[in-house]
Design a protein that fits this description.
Bound molecules: heme C
CATH architecture of one domain: Orthogonal Bundle
Largest sheet: 2 strands, antiparallel
CATH class of one domain: Mainly Alpha
Structural class: mainly alpha
Distance between the termini: 79 Å
Length: 334
């Protein structure tokens, strides 16, 4: 940089000298011609045209050439750092705006520093509905089969919320108060404040399948596995007859990866825990065993009549909204 400063200095001095010469020359000629009206002043002689006039034009050419030869590179060098600075400034202001929006709209549930929290359940105000930790959401979804673009996933979640859970819609699309730009800012704030750790997966060996179901699944799938069929507001699907619809292996896959539904009702993934404590496959298997125990005999694949299958699939498709579901009553638990 100092080298170019020296070069510019020298060029500036040279340019100033040329300019000074030109001005002195011009004012000398102007003074001589001042007494003659402009129209009667003699034109340049051939000798002048070939010498001083030509030299003057050439001198101007040199000055301008030097000027641009210096101006463009210097401008170009500065422009790069200027645009980089501007991009960074707008990024920083987006993240700052995102943080303010987060504190105002999200921190009461997701915690002051994205660390997670809870909100009262809409179905039982006494019990708390966990609001996931957002500070490790990138790591939690890194291996997820359903989520390939975590930024889009966050923005989509903000746009439509999670119907049936305390997570409301924030985007205009879902009737929320925030603009797309504000949602982007919030997503950017979340993504720039990530830690890489998740909790160690727990085998939850000391917890029964029933306990695990009560802690993690009941709030969406209901006390008797009936989900939205028992309470249309609940997001979860009826799990009676689930073994007729899926193999045990694919149920494990569902528990690991969750299910993303365009309407926003989400079956969360338990592979890396959308909660504090992720579960190992053994713990998930304990839950699957519990689901099997809770099935009425005729809702299991081998014995189940085709009649039941039809009913349950119909119920599953319309989320029980028409209430036309005479489920075989699930065996009462507890
Ligand atoms: C009233 C409490 C509440 C508020 C306010 C709230 N959330 Fe949530 N949020 C939740 C709950 C509860 C869940 C989990 C829903 C479920 O069980 O699937 C959730 C889920 C999420 C998820 C999905 C997390 C995952 O691991 O899949 C994201 C992302 C999210 N919220 C972001 C936000 C942001 C950003 C805001 C503020 C604009 C916000 N939430 C405001 C309660 C809230
Ligand atoms: C935040 C609410 C929520 C929680 C918590 C939840 N689920 Fe779900 N679950 C859903 C929704 C919504 C669906 C239906 C998705 C769809 O439409 O395909 C579903 C679907 C399922 C399915 C597939 C059912 C089928 O017939 O296709 C299984 C199995 C399941 N959940 C098991 C569980 C288990 C076990 C737990 C606890 C570890 C659990 N879910 C926790 C919301 C939830």
């Amino acid at each position: 940089m100092s080298q170019s400063v020296v070069v510019i200095g020298i060029l500036a001095v040279a340019g100033a000298a040329v300019l000074a010469f030109l001005f002195a020359n011009a004012s000398r000629q102007r003074r001589a011609a001042e007494n003659v009206p402009p129209g009667m002043r003699p034109g340049y002689s051939d000798e002048q045209l070939e010498r001083s006039v030509l030299e003057r034009y050439m001198a101007w050419g040199v000055v301008l050439t030097l000027f641009f030869a210096v101006f463009f590179p210097v401008y170009w060098i500065r422009e790069q750092s200027r645009t980089a600075g501007a991009v960074e400034a707008s990024f920083v202001s987006q993240v700052v705006a995102g943080e303010a929006l987060y504190v105002e709209n999200c921190s009461q549930c997701h915690g002051g520093n994205l660390g997670g929290g809870a909100a009262p359940s809409p179905y039982d105000p006494e019990s708390q509905w966990p609001a996931p930790n957002l500070s490790n959401i990138v790591t939690r979804y890194a291996d997820n089969r359903n989520v390939t673009d975590i930024e889009q996933f966050i923005i989509r979640t903000l746009q439509i919320g999670r119907p049936g859970t305390p997570m409301q819609a924030f985007g205009g699309q879902g009737g929320g108060p925030l603009t797309d730009e504000q949602l982007n800012d919030i997503a950017l704030y979340i993504l720039t404040n990530q830690v890489e750790e998740t909790e160690e997966a727990s085998a939850a060996a000391d917890l029964s399948g029933e306990q695990l179901y009560t802690d993690n699944c009941l709030r969406c799938h209901g006390e008797q596995l009936q989900g939205a069929d028992g309470d249309p507001a609940r997001p979860g699907k009826n799990l009676v007859g689930v073994f007729q619809r899926h193999s045990e292996e694919s149920i494990l896959g569902i528990l690991q990866n969750g299910i993303l539904v365009p309407t926003g009702a989400v079956m969360p993934p338990w592979q890396n825990g959308y909660q504090e404590q992720p579960y190992t496959d053994e713990a998930l298997q304990t839950i699957i065993d519990y689901l099997r125990e809770q099935q009425p005999a005729d809702a299991l694949p081998d014995e189940g009549g085709t009649e039941d299958t039809d009913e349950e699939e119909g119920a599953a498709d319309d989320g029980g909204a028409d209430g036309a579901t005479d489920e075989p009553s699930p065996s009462p638990d507890v």
